[in-house]
Amino acid sequence: MKPTLLLLLKAIGTILCISSLHSTIMVAQADANYIIKEDFAKFKKGSEEQPDPSNIADPDSENIPENYTQEEGWRGGGVYQAGGSCFINSYEVWGVPTDGVIKTPKKDLEGTIVIRFRARSNEAGKSDLNVWLSNGITNEKISSLALTKEWTQYSFVYSIADGITMERAYIAFRGVTGALLSFYIDDIEVRKFEESGKELTFDIQQMHPYLNAPTEEFQNDFKEYQAEGDHNTYSTTFQDKAYTLITNADERGLLESIKLTASSTTLDEYLAILNLGKGNNSLGTFFGAKFSGKTSGVKQTIDETIALLQSNANELRVVAIFNPHTGVYFVLDWDKGTYSLTLCRNYLPLYIDSFITALHSPFELYMAKHYYLCNRINLFGLLKLNFPAIKNSQGDLFTMDCIASSDKQSIQEININLNTKDNSDNTKAIAIWKSEAQRFVKVFTSFIELYATDASGKKIQRFSNLEEAIAFVESDNREHGVTLVTQQNEKQIALVINKKSLFYLLNRAKEKPAISLHYTLPLETPLSFEITFKEPLRVDWGDGQLQTIEKGSLISGKLKGQHVYIFGNPTSFNTEGTQLEAIDVSGARHLTTLECANNNLKEIYLGDNVELQTLDLEKNKLKSINLSGLTQLKKLLLGNNELSSLNLSGLSQLTRLQVDNNKDLATLNLSPAPMLLMLSVSNCNLNELNLSDNTSIVKIVAQDNAISTIALEAHPNLESLNLQGNNLSSITIPNSPNLQSLNLSNNKLQNIEITKGEKLQEVLLSHNALTSINNDIWKNAMRLNIGANKINKISVSNNKQLRDLYVYANQLTTNEMLSLAESIYSRKGANEPGHLYYVQKGNTGGNRIALQAVALLREKNWDIYEVEQTEDGWIEKNLSDEDLKNHPNELQSISSPSITCCYHYGRLSFSAPVTSFSVYTLSGEIITTVTQEGKDFSITLPRGYFLVVAQTTNQIFQQIIVL
């Protein structure tokens, strides 16, 4: 039952405030107990963002037409429809501005009532709401509330004196007098309070362990004492007096206080309880009493407190505080004639997001809200609230100062400091900072800037993520400072650790530049940027002087310092090729295009640039990048950087990604980008590429990696695939009917399976280990490269669109060259010849040239080329007939070897072993081919002249024989 979470107190007086961010159990009361119930469902016009402009309350009578509410009798001023809720705004009465108000129908009220409603401000921290009970004669303020932008539910119990009925009474919800501020209100309920019929004995020692535990624990253990329909209200007794017990939960759902109120109270009762504290351990140690009113101060003893009350009770508020247990206060709160008793935490929990709402809120109201836990200090004109106990979830102790503005009206700054003892222990302070920093980045999901500072506060290093900052702090041992800072609207929140202290600082944010640029160029270096904008810009070229730019698409100036700041609202920005080293665009919330290619960028800071669609950072020196806030990004170019990892989380709209030449990039998770159409990841260090979630992809370029397998089963839109220079030994492409370009060169392919290749125009399969190929798969291909494989037979009879055919460095014999020439389609009449790349320079063991095939190719309008690989690339030479006759691969050009052959009685014998041979007629017709190694072969030949072409392990020779 011991608490683990520490959360911000939200109770004011008897109010139970329930944040809309968590659920609190409520049971509907029987309709008979409801006095008023209004949900404003008939306020149909307008919306919360844009309320209807018509004030529906009559300016003279204040009446609201009955067709707008569940029952007639509602009144008010400045009442507007807001799409199912009520918007209250200031309005004019006889030309005088007046605070808006809405009033319930008049009812006869008696006994104890429960009032519930939801409300929120129109401007964060600037809307205050007063709740009044009135019958036209008596006006009684029930509560004052500081509203926030979030819808919050308020519930409180109010007791009318025994035996008294307030006739024709109504409840008014009004803005603070004279403030002329607006607010929203909804779901107003007023009902009779029904006790459970059972009384719970209030016991401090029994109940304090429930504090800071989930409220449901208290509710479950004491549910038999709950008031009907209200899990937060109970009947109880204390010192033989009946009270209403109200449990108050903070916005995290933890029990922050247990409060006792009664319909009538007396000073004697209060003094009797106070006297219990004399030597009575059940109330705990007496910590003193704060008093305020005509005079203020502190009383150190119970007797001094009693004497003070006996002399001036009706003009003072006196808060006597006891400490019954560690972390717990029992508070006796006397307020000018009435009292309440509260068991509560003696600290505020350190939840920094809760303190943000206090910044710029009314000073006095915040003090009243936390009166038990803070001290009001006015020192030499500096007014502040000091909270001596703020605890984080690990129980580490901090102190907090809320400093008032110069007019003393609001809180302008909040400082939260680690206690002196822990701060002096470097190891412990760093551990606490690390824990707070990790919580900081979870709470504030928008852009967070992280940087290190020297002793003067000057930034000396920026960090791209929290892990880098933590590593710096742990190794630096607090010699330098490290700051985490973010902004929420006009508020700035910073977490700082340095040599002297660890603290949070909350204050008003300074105007943030839309774009900040960092250079180390000489002063007076000219700079120019392409930029688009709708409103005038201001530029600081580094000397603090602002230059206003009214119009144009190019801004130019000379560098006056290391930083250039651009203020305003740019929509696109291009700083390509300016030797930029760092850029921060977190303030450019409406930026759609950012182009910073070809610079020296080592750091880039992107915030919630939710409108950014194009980001070009090619040719820089980036080692890491945080893209988490770019939810609308479509085009991302990061080629030629030094990235070792890339997180695409949140980039669900990304359609084009280019990260070529990041040689340390070994893995890439593409699943967060399901809409990806174009991917280019060449020359990285990838050994796999998972595209299972990228089923819409059209183009893949992933050459020069180490990819050994790839699955392409579900990519029907794929048009271009380039996997050149990987480790693929086989590949299957079963369902890509739109594939037009395929490049699988320079792999280890032995097998290719493509089911649908009808649209393929270009097929590049050179430098693999293929032994055969089925060219019917890509019968419409115009360019086919199967050079440098192990193919000994090729047919292109069905490839009628072929224009460029590469077959060099294979194992084609003269016969196969002739077969190829016969199968290739004729380009007679075409404007340009076909191109057959048949031999590779220096590769005399490759394809053989048959002059008869050459003649046939010439007749079909095909040129024959020799290719040569050099350091600068491939050179192609169109071979003439003379070149072909004298080419090393042409058989007739080979010099006569020492080996001879003869034919005798059906046997062909060689003077030395051969590996294969063929016999031709002199017209070029092949008689037979033998691929068996040996010297003596059985073969039958007719009479006539024949050409024998034979091959040994190191040479080819030919000889004419006569039979």
Automatic annotation (TrEMBL):
Region (Disordered): 45-72
Signal sequence bounds: 1-28
GO molecular function, one term: signaling adaptor activity
Record's keyword terms, sorted: Leucine-rich repeat, Repeat, Signal
Protein's name according to its UniProt entry: Uncharacterized protein
Taxonomic placement: Bacteria, Pseudomonadati, Bacteroidota, Bacteroidia, Bacteroidales
